[in-house]
Amino acid sequence: MANTILHKAETRGDANHGWLHSRHTFSFADYYDPERIHFGMLRVINDDIVEAGMGFGTHPHDNMEIISIPLEGDLEHKDNMGNVSVIKHGDIQVMSAGTGITHSEYNKNKDKRVKFLQIWVFPDRRNVKPRYDQITLNIEDRHNKFQQILSPNPDDAGVWIYQNAWFLLGQFDKGFGADYNIKSKGNGTYAFILSGTVTINNQELNSRDGFGIWDIDKLSVKANTNAEFLLMEVPMK
User: Fold this and answer.
1) Are residues 101 and 76 in the same domain?
2) Domain end position, chosen among 136, 158, 187
3) Which pLDDT belongs to residue 1?
4) Most CB contacts within 10 A, which of 86, 93, 128, 192?
5) Considering the entire predicted model, what is its pTM?
6) Cα 91 to Cα 202: distance, rounded to the nearest angstrom
7) Which of 157, 160, 158 lies closest to 128 in space, CA to CA?
8) Strands lying side by side in the sheet with 177-181
9) Domain match, 124 and 178 both
């Protein structure tokens, strides 16, 4: 019997700092809900808007897999490993914080906002050597299909992390549907809707809704309007 959890967009934590407006699917910073700490190994989904020319000053992380998915605009990254880069829509960035990193993120542009998702996944091992990677994806590869953007395997499509997890992006036309087969037994899948309306296993979801489902072998995704979504398959234990 499938287990599910639904997080409607409007129930998320809401932190508006002026320069940053962040919506938190799970407990983060000043937003705390004991019912919403994590989904399996998925710890954070922050839906961030950074105002023009603003950003996060240098700050530390350790023992976390950190994935950034830009949705709009250009985000400049600097870290203590010597990486300086700009990520934009179509890119995906990953950091294994491991023994510890410091980094900053800034909106590269003085005239427009940047929107991005920051996602944290618990790693399957501690105190690894920190690492950074980013790639540019072909956005066409998610049109009416699941585009793998992250996996546990350095030789597979997308970036990789220290966890038995897979992330996929889909951009489905209205009326299109497809099944997603769970890749690893014991994993669950958390869907985050970026735009439009989709139905996943009979649950209708709108923009920025989150839906977790586990104890299943596959899930069916159908677009009720033109829609874009992110699927995150993660271990539940």
Assistant:
1) yes
2) 136
3) 87
4) 192
5) 0.97
6) 31
7) 160
8) 177-181, 218-223, 198-200, 203-205
9) no
* Nearest C-alpha neighbor of 170 from the set 209, 201, 141: 141
The verdict on 76 and 170 lying in the same domain is: no
Per-residue pLDDT tens digits of the chain, which is 237 residues long: 899 999 999 999 999 999 999 999 999 999 999 999 999 999 999 999 999 999 999 999 999 999 999 999 999 999 999 999 999 999 999 999 999 999 999 998 999 999 999 999 999 999 999 999 999 999 999 999 999 999 999 999 999 999 999 999 999 999 999 999 999 999 999 999 999 999 999 999 999 999 999 999 999 999 999 999 999 999 999
Same-domain pairing of 55 and 118: yes
How far from 60 is each of 39, 106, 201, CA to CA, in Å?
A: 23, 15, 39
Structure tokens at 201: 């296993």
Which residues lie closer than 8 Å to 17 by C-beta, 6 or more apart?
Answer: none
Q: Which residues contact 229 (CB under 8 A, 6 or more apart)?
A: 169, 170, 172, 191, 192, 193, 194, 196, 198, 205, 221
φ/ψ bin of 139: left (φ > 0), alpha (ψ from -120 to 50), beta (otherwise): alpha
Among the three residues 114, 136, 158, which one is the final residue of a domain in this structure?
136
Tokens of 11: 């129930």
Same domain, 168 and 229: yes
Contact 113, 73 (CB under 8 A): yes
Structural domain containing residue 85: 13-136
